[in-house]
Design goal:
Helices cover about 55% and strands about 10% of the residues. Helix 21 packs parallel to helix 23, helix 25 (about 485-495) runs parallel beside helix 27 (about 515-530) and helix 27 (about 515-530) crosses helix 28 (about 535-555). The protein has a six-stranded mixed β-sheet with strand order 7-9-10-11-8-12, sandwiched between helices. It has a three-stranded antiparallel β-sheet with strand order 1-3-2. The chain has helices spanning about 10-20, 30-35, 35-45, 50-65, 70-80, 85, 90-100, 125-135, 145-165, 170-185, 190-195, 200-215, 220-225, 235-245, 250, 275-280, 310-325, 325-340, 355-370, 375-380, 385-405, 420, 430-450, 465-470, 485-495, 500-510, 515-530, 535-555, and strands at about 70, 100-105, 120-125, 220, 255-260, 270, 295, 345-350, 370-375, 410-415, 455-460, 475-480. The protein has four domains: about 10-135, Winged helix-like DNA-binding domain superfamily/Winged helix DNA-binding domain (Arc Repressor Mutant, subunit A); about 145-280, Arc Repressor Mutant, subunit A (Orthogonal Bundle); about 295-480, Rossmann fold (3-Layer(aba) Sandwich); about 485-555.
C-alpha cells in the first residue's frame, strides 16, 4: 500500500505537526504541554536551541507555511492565551533570531514601532528547506551570499534614483523599498539596521551610503542622497538641517561622522569604525572593488638601501626602528592604553636638505613591514578657499580606512611639511591667512586624537609653530654629515674609489648624502653616454658644478646658508 506514502524524510515534519496540534487551546498550560515533551526535545536537539525555543519555532514553522508569517496574535489565538503572555518569552524569540532559525519583520520597516506585538516572524527558508528535505541543520553563515545582499541594495538605490528622476513619489519609494526589504530581511545587514529603529529617511540614507561605499567612495554626498528621497523641497531642507544636528540617529549610534563644510550642501558623511565593523560582521567587504591607492607605498616594493648617519642620529633612528617592530609596537600601545595615555606614535624628522630624512622613512617601513601612505603637502593645498581644509581632514579619514585593510598599522608620512607646520599667522584677515590657519587647526586637532603612526619631515624646524612641538613625541634632528660620514658615503656609493680618493672628495666638498647621490647619477649617465669609465678628474668636475648650482640657488632665492 503506497497511497499517501511520503517520499521525503518526514520525521521532523511530523514532530513539528504534533507540537503545533498539541499547542491548540493549551492556554500556555505547562501540564498539558508535558505530553509533547519527547517531540519538543527532538526538535530542540535538531535546532540546537532550548526546549521553549523549539516549541515556539514549531508554531512559527507551521504558520509560515499556512499564512506566510506568524505574529503574536496568530499564536495567542491558536493557544487561546493573551498576547501579553508571549512577551514573557521575548528572549526565546531573540535567541531563535540570533541562531538563524527564524526572521523578524517589523510591521513597517521604515517607521518606528515600539510595540513588539506588531512584529511578524517567519521560519528561515534555508532551515525550513533542510527540515523538509531531511538534511542536517545548516551551518550559520550559509543562508545567503554577498552577491544577494548587493542585488537587494542595488534595487533599493535604483528606486531612489527613480525618485530623483521624478518617476516615482516619496510615498511610492517607501512602499517599494519596504517590499524589497521584506523579501530580503533574512540578511544580517537588514536585521541590524532594523534593530536600530531608524526613521524611514535615515534608514534609506544609510543604505545609500553603504551602496556608495561598496562602489569605492569614502565620502558621501548628503544633499544628493536627500534629493533621492524627498520630492518636497521643504522636506528636503528639513532633513538636511536635521542631518547636521545632534539628534541625527546615525550620529547618535556612531554610524557616521560628518565632514564640516562652509555651506550645508557641501557637507559629506563618512563611516565610522562602528559602521565598518558592522558591515564586516554582516559579511560585506567594502574594499573588494577598491583600486590600489596611488599614494600607498607597499613595504614589499621598497628597494633596500644602506644609509650612513652620524652616531647621534643612528641612536635615535635605532630606537625608532625597534619601536616600529610589530611586537614592540603592539606592547607599547597596550601599555599606553592601560595608563590612559595617547596611543599615537608621532615623529618629526628635521634637519638640512638631502640628509636622508625621506629615505630613512622608507627603509624603516621596509624593515618593519609597514606600508606608507605618503602625502605631498603641495598636493593637499588647494587654491580653492575651503577645499584645503576638507582635503587635510580627508587625509586622516583615508588613513583610518587604509589602516583597516593593512596587515600592520601603516605609516602616515607628510613629506616636506614645512608649509603646513610653520607658525600660524596672527591677525590675518586675508583668505589665504584664514585658510592656512584653519588647515593648521585641523591638523593639530587630528594629531591630538591620532592613534596610528605619523611621521613628518621638515627642513626648517626653526619655523615650527609651538603648538606642534608637543604633538610630536619624537623629534630627530639630522645633522649635515661630518667628513668621516661623507667619506663612508662616497666609499659606499662608489666602491671603485680608493680610500684616499673617497676622503679627498669628502674633505673638499661638504655635500649632503643627497648631493653625493646626484654626483653618482651623473657618473652613471656619463659612462652610459660615452662608453668609458669616469675618472677622478671628471668626478671633481661634477662636484664643482654641483657646488656652483647650490650657490646659485642660495643667491637666487635668499635661502639661509
Amino acid at each position: 500500500m503506497t497511497l499517501l506514502q511520503p517520499t521525503a524524510n518526514s520525521t521532523l515534519l511530523r514532530t513539528i505537526d504534533t507540537i503545533f496540534k498539541g499547542a491548540r487551546k493549551c492556554d500556555m498550560d505547562t501540564q498539558r504541554l508535558q505530553n509533547l515533551q519527547a517531540e519538543i526535545e527532538q526538535l530542540a536537539r535538531y535546532l540546537k536551541t532550548t526546549e521553549t525555543g523549539a516549541f515556539f519555532a514549531a508554531l512559527i514553522f507551521s504558520f509560515t507555511y499556512r499564512e506566510g508569517r506568524a505574529d503574536f496574535n496568530d499564536m495567542s489565538r491558536h493557544m487561546e492565551c493573551s498576547p501579553t503572555q508571549l512577551l514573557e518569552f521575548m528572549d526565546q524569540f531573540e535567541a531563535l533570531i540570533a541562531g538563524g532559525i527564524i526572521q523578524k519583520t517589523k510591521a513597517s520597516v521604515f517607521r518606528r514601532r515600539t510595540n513588539p506585538t506588531n512584529d511578524t516572524y517567519k521560519f528561515h527558508p534555508a532551515v525550513a528547506d533542510a527540515i523538509i528535505r531531511g538534511l542536517p541543520f545548516p551551518e550559520k553563515g550559509t543562508t545567503g551570499s554577498e552577491t544577494d545582499i548587493l542585488i537587494a541594495l542595488e534595487n533599493i538605490c535604483d528606486l531612489m534614483d527613480k525618485r530623483k528622476d521624478e518617476e516615482i513619489s516619496t510615498t511610492e519609494l517607501l512602499l517599494e523599498a519596504e517590499a524589497i526589504w521584506q523579501q530580503n530581511d533574512h540578511f544580517p545587514l537588514f536585521q541590524k539596521i532594523q534593530s536600530f529603529g531608524l526613521e524611514s529617511e535615515f534608514a534609506l540614507a544609510y543604505l545609500a551610503f553603504v551602496w556608495q561605499a561598496i562602489s569605492g567612495k569614502q565620502g558621501f554626498d548628503i544633499e544628493g542622497v536627500s534629493g533621492c528621497i524627498f520630492e518636497s523641497r521643504p522636506s528636503h531642507f528639513r532633513f538636511m538641517r536635521r542631518f547636521m544636528e545632534d539628534d541625527n540617529p546615525l550620529l547618535e549610534k556612531d554610524l557616521i561622522e560628518i565632514d564640516a563644510a562652509r555651506f550645508l550642501n557641501d557637507a559629506e558623511a563618512r563611516f565610522t569604525d562602528t559602521s565598518y565593523q558592522l558591515l564586516k560582521d554582516c559579511g560585506i567587504n567594502l574594499f573588494f572593488n577598491e583600486k590600489k591607492r596611488d599614494n600607498l607605498i607597499s613595504a614589499a616594493d621598497i628597494v633596500p638601501r644602506q644609509l650612513i648617519f652620524d652616531p647621534s642620529d643612528m641612536a635615535s633612528l635605532e630606537t625608532l626602528r625597534t619601536l616600529l617592530g610589530e611586537e614592540k609596537y603592539t606592547e607599547t600601545r597596550r601599555l599606553l592604553e592601560q595608563k590612559s595615555l595617547p596611543k599615537g606614535l608621532t615623529v618629526l624628522l628635521h634637519g638640512a636638505p638631502g640628509t636622508g630624512k625621506t629615505e630613512i622613512v622608507k627603509q624603516l617601513a621596509r624593515e618593519t613591514g609597514r606600508d606608507i601612505m605618503k602625502v605631498e603637502i603641495s598636493q593637499a593645498k588647494s587654491m580653492w578657499f575651503g577645499e584645503s581644509e576638507k582635503r587635510i581632514k580627508r587625509i586622516f579619514t583615508d588613513y583610518a580606512a587604509c589602516a583597516r585593510t593593512c596587515k600592520q598599522m601603516p605609516i602616515l608620512f607628510f613629506n616636506e611639511a614645512d608649509a603646513i607646520l610653520g607658525k600660524r599667522r596672527e591677525n590675518g584677515h586675508s583668505n589665504t591667512s584664514q585658510t592656512e590657519n584653519a588647515i593648521q587647526n585641523i591638523l593639530l586637532e587630528e594629531l591630538e586624537n591620532f592613534e596610528g603612526i605619523f611621521i613628518a619631515t621638515t627642513n626648517m624646524a626653526m619655523n615650527l609653530d609651538s603648538a606642534f612641538e608637543r604633538r610630536f613625541l619624537f623629534k630627530v634632528r639630522f645633522e649635515a654629515p661630518s667628513v668621516d660620514v661623507r667619506t663612508q658615503i662616497w666609499a659606499l656609493r662608489l666602491p671603485d674609489l680608493t680610500p684616499q680618493e673617497a676622503q679627498l672628495l669628502a674633505v673638499r666638498f661638504p655635500f649632503s648624502g643627497g648631493q653625493i647621490d646626484n654626483i653618482v647619477r651623473k657618473k652613471e649617465i656619463e659612462e652610459i653616454v660615452s662608453g668609458r669609465p669616469v675618472c677622478l678628474e671628471q668626478l671633481l668636475s661634477f662636484c664643482e658644478a654641483e657646488t656652483l648650482a647650490a650657490q646659485r640657488a642660495r643667491i637666487g632665492f635668499g635661502a639661509a646658508a
